Amino acid sequence: MAESTDPQAAPAPDNTHWGVAYLREDLQDLRLQLREDVKDLRQQIAETNKRIDRTNELIGSRFAWLITTMVALAGILAALIKL
């Protein structure tokens, strides 16, 4: 009894070519979409970092005013107590 080959086991060369072509096209589309997503994400990160920097500057300036005011009030209180 000779070994028989199953015609469904090996796809036709033409079908393989088209399948590979479609997969390649899909991979290119995925890469392009991924590049766009990464670009958008980097832009959002840059905007977030700018907002954080502005917030830090605001908090820093308010902290400086608070410390200055506390030192001034402490000086005034010390002067009033000595009177």
Features:
single chain, 83 residues, mainly alpha, 1 helix, 0% strand
Could you outline the blueprint of secondary structure elements for this entry?
Layout: H1 13-82
Could you write a compact summary of the structure shown?
By secondary structure, the protein is an all-alpha fold.
Give the ordered list of helices and strands. H
Distance between the termini: 121 Å
Beta-strand content: under 5%
Low-confidence stretches: none
Q: In terms of structural class, how would the helical and strand content be classed?
A: mainly alpha
**Strands, total number:** 0
The dominant shape is rod-shaped
Rg calculated over all Cα atoms = 35 Å
- Give the rounded overall mean pLDDT: 87
Largest sheet: none
Fraction in helix? over 70%
Q: What's the total helix number?
A: 1
Walk me through this protein's architecture.
With 83 residues, this protein is mainly alpha-helical. It has one helix and no strands. The radius of gyration is 35 Å and the shape is rod-shaped. The model has no long low-confidence stretch (mean pLDDT 87).
